[in-house]
Specification:
alpha+beta; seven-stranded antiparallel β-sheet; 6 helices; about 35% helix
Length: about 260
């Protein structure tokens, strides 16, 4: 199912590119693209009925992700309150799968992987390029944690999976991430976009409603704290009598008068 239809479309459009004098990537550069028709990530256009693609997957607009058993969702919001990343959290750590606009021909992930490795070398204790089911994976180790980047080139899209875990659980977490990635679906859309533009993330309405309610509650709490801070502070109490003039009995009697109003 995976890329068969789009490979034929790409060939026809690459031929048109040649007629227009545009450069076409060498087919050997697509070594990181899977040829296994039973393994994704898939394009939503590969489904005869797009509704089938949604079944059993978390629909995030541009990416539809199957959730691992026991997995939970963690949403990161930008300053405008829009989702910037959606993490799948498991007992082993967390991973996120996101899609980006890409050229018709493969090769973007190879380029991005090199840039990621160069960036990681500035901070990570060690950086390595390892072979995975879809080709190269970038692994960085440092500060007691491990980050693994997995990428796949598709037709006009590239998908990137970021895996964050501890050295003790990273292998199990990477297996969970690869399993979800292999059955993910990309909804690229027809809108022309610059290469590397992140495809929009849209939360399911029940999840979006929960976030709105949480944001509203947080805003109300903040407003209440601001109102409390703006209230005038109570005036200072009159100075206490000198200790030398007070006895235990006098102190008790003073408390009694205060209580009884005498």
């Amino acid at each position: 199912m995976a890329f068969g239809k789009h490979k034929s479309n790409a060939s026809a459009e690459d031929a048109a590119d040649r007629q227009e004098g545009q450069p076409v990537a060498d087919p050997s550069a697509s070594a990181d693209v899977t040829d296994d028709i039973d393994q994704g990530p898939f394009d939503v256009e590969d489904f005869d009925d797009p509704a089938v693609a949604v079944q059993g997957r978390l629909d995030l607009g541009s990416v539809l992700i199957p959730m691992p058993d026991g997995g939970q969702v963690q949403v990161e919001l930008n300053e405008a309150g829009a989702p910037s990343a959606v993490w799948v959290v498991t007992p082993n750590g967390r991973f996120t799968i996101a899609a980006y606009a890409a050229p018709k021909s493969a090769g973007l992930w190879r380029e991005v992987a090199g840039e990621l490795a160069d960036s990681l070398r500035k901070d990570a204790t060690s950086v390595s390029i390892q072979d995975g089911p879809w080709g190269r994976e970038v692994v960085g180790v440092g500060n007691g944690g491990v980050v693994r980047f997995i990428g796949v080139d598709g037709y006009r899209w590239m998908v990137r999976c970021v895996v964050n875990g501890s050295p003790e659980t990273i292998d199990a977490l990477a297996d969970e991430a690869r399993t979800s990635l292999a059955d993910s679906v990309i909804r690229r859309g027809d809108t022309p976009l610059p290469v590397r533009t992140p495809l929009a993330v849209q939360l399911p309405e029940p999840m979006a409603a929960q976030l709105r309610a949480a944001a509203q509650q947080a805003a109300m709490q903040q407003a209440a704290q601001q109102m409390a801070a703006a209230q005038p502070q109570p005036s200072e109490q009159p100075p206490a009598e000198p200790a030398a003039r007070r006895s235990v009995q006098g102190s008790a009697m003073q408390q009694l008068r205060t209580i009884t109003g005498g």
